[in-house]
Design goal:
Helix content is about 75%, strand content about 10%. It has about 90 residues and is mainly alpha-helical. Strands 1-2 form a two-stranded antiparallel ribbon.
Length: about 90
């Protein structure tokens, strides 16, 4: 009985942290989406000063823009999503 109680407490601990990390990751994804919509990143043309050329926006160009300007936020959000998936798999295993 004692071991079983410890297991349930541990699983509850994991579940609560999975909920918090998943919520934070999904909130971060929403903020990134809102940033793309607010700045209209898929409708603007980017200028490359190295070759003096305008570049049409694509998923790759928008992703590069976000990484360059919001690196800490994007990296944190990717980490939260990876941790969320890892916690889910770990909980499912137990």
């Amino acid at each position: 009985m004692y071991r079983s109680k410890k297991l349930w407490i541990f699983l509850l601990f994991l579940f609560v942290h999975w909920i918090l990390v998943t919520y934070s990751g999904s909130l971060g994804l929403y903020l990134i989406y809102n940033l793309i919509i607010e700045k209209k990143l898929f409708k603007v043309h980017f200028y490359n000063p190295m070759i003096n050329e305008e570049i049409n926006s694509s998923y790759k160009v928008v992703f590069q823009y976000l990484i360059y300007n919001y690196y800490a936020f994007i990296a944190t959000n990717i980490m939260l999503i990876v941790i969320s998936i890892t916690l889910f798999v770990f909980i499912y295993y137990h």
